[in-house]
Predict the 3D structure of the following.
Amino acid sequence: MKLAVFLSDWRRTEDTYERLKADKLGVILVGNGIYHAVIKENGKESPILSKAGASFYVLSDDLETRGFTAANVNSKVKVIGYGDVVDLIMNDYEKTAWL
Amino acid sequence: MKLAVFLSDWRRTEDTYERLKADKLGVILVGNGIYHAVIKENGKESPILSKAGASFYVLSDDLETRGFTAANVNSKVKVIGYGDVVDLIMNDYEKTAWL
Amino acid sequence: MGAVKLLFVVQRPPYKSENPRLALTHAIASQTAEIYMDEGDSVVPIVAFVGDGVLNAVKNQQAMKLYGVTSTESHIKNSLLIDMQIWVCKEDMERLGLKEADMVTDAEDLGAELKTKFVSYADIQKEMENTGHLLFF
Amino acid sequence: MGAVKLLFVVQRPPYKSENPRLALTHAIASQTAEIYMDEGDSVVPIVAFVGDGVLNAVKNQQAMKLYGVTSTESHIKNSLLIDMQIWVCKEDMERLGLKEADMVTDAEDLGAELKTKFVSYADIQKEMENTGHLLFF
Amino acid sequence: MGELTIGVFSSLVGSMSLDFSFKLAEAAMAKGHKVNMWLSGNAVMMAKKGQKPFKDYSHNQKRMMDLIAKGLAITVCEACAEARGYHKEDTPEGMKRASMDWYLAKTVKTDRLLHIGGE
Amino acid sequence: MGELTIGVFSSLVGSMSLDFSFKLAEAAMAKGHKVNMWLSGNAVMMAKKGQKPFKDYSHNQKRMMDLIAKGLAITVCEACAEARGYHKEDTPEGMKRASMDWYLAKTVKTDRLLHIGGE
């Protein structure tokens, strides 16, 4: 399946993400999920970003709301806007999962 | 200080608890905090219960709401009612911290 | 369109949020959704409890007696009564030290024939692939 | 009673919950609490950001521009303007890779003299012992 | 153009997931998609007229009314609303109240479902 | 006998911290303590009359009214209420609305403060 996963938390309270599998997986960081794109806790990037084969996106509005910019974002992650989120949902993926 | 700490979460999103120090420390498990008193994840008791020198309490109403009874509770933890919570706050401790 | 499958995945414990309960009540509402649908259309829900969500299916919940609120246990039993599938992830039960004897396994007291299915995570993953839409709680 | 010290401890990031913001607005309300108090009484608040709570004090938050909501940055600056102490835990900043240059250090643009204090957790623990009441957010 | 159904369960002031949902609906409608919204749980806090637009609090009422005028189909969970004391006369113009089966039925024909089931 | 002040920020339906607070207030008053309650954030959801007591949802209005009759002093954050569309005429009998300084002032003379600042 082609699955778009939304992560909106920094400290997560589920472990579904690690177990999820998809032929095509997009991970969209929104809300406090944006910290996974910019914070290196104890010098290490977020384990979220080590999911094999996934494409990573971060919503610029939520990034800038929290005081960060594209310059702070991990190079694995693409900065996108609301219009891009719509296109990912409607065109690039078949199902969504807001964890 | 004499401090009564309330824990109401199972998956915690703060790390204050580990760092808190008090001359006299009471830990009152309420809400989903009760799972720390009854669940052994991967066979191990909750790390919450290894805080040195602390007294542990669990609210029976919240325990039974979630399907557990005193028989399931770790022997380190005392099962109490709402009236006991009042006495702990008003008589046994000087300050409270709901984490 | 015919029958559309929906998979409700409950990942978190009960009573910290209303949402695990709402997963069950929304899934149950599939029974009456016909009035809004075209002839021949239907939705077929499965509610799967994974991760800490399996704590929703622990039996003997006294929420009604102590707080005046319907327990998730009671909603699970009502689901079985209307033949709605309830799945609980076995690996997560084992991780949390829960045995089948600790869980809501049936609603025989209400006259339900369907029983809770204790499944592996792989079964739930497979259903995610087969289902029309995913609803995570 | 005289002056009562209150320590507001913010442990979680902004925008996931309203509560870090409410810690600041409640502390600021100490300025106008006199109308409800006896002559000579007062409350003296300190707001301390610990753990992931230090993310509240990251500068350049665009919440107003993008969502029409006052940023926590702006509330921190207003706090400094009325000489209310703002403490940020150094060890947690270091753990999250944040430098003082990334943070709200002052509100000079508003004309405030007081600056943010970057303190160690031990200072916050000491203040917990000295304070009259603790308010965790 | 497609049809997107968004189900939201988050409170008006808090996680900003409701703010996200309305901005996403706006962006989707700007691209010509049809959008349905279902508000349940604490998201039924939208079903109360007369919310004051203070700058310290998320305020979605204005954007919601604009989107309704442009064709957004929005329905709130009736029981969730009544439990919170929101009655029929509190409901903003153009918003519907229904039971949960409205949402379930929408999933049949919609092209995509985004279900925001957490806070 | 002492004085206990409880500050709550949790929503009506959700974490059950509000249910906890009212049961704790009841137990404290039964032991002869004076209790003050401050409702802010999503806990201002109590400031709406006419909440239907469905069994699927936490319902604290009845217990609150009983406790008010017995002397509970309860005040809600006025701005938090207005932002959610709760006006003066929505407020249950005996509940006060005030700004946050009411709560701050209560901390001066109260023997104990239990501040529930999370959901």
Summary: Residues 82-92 of chain B form the longest helix (11 residues).
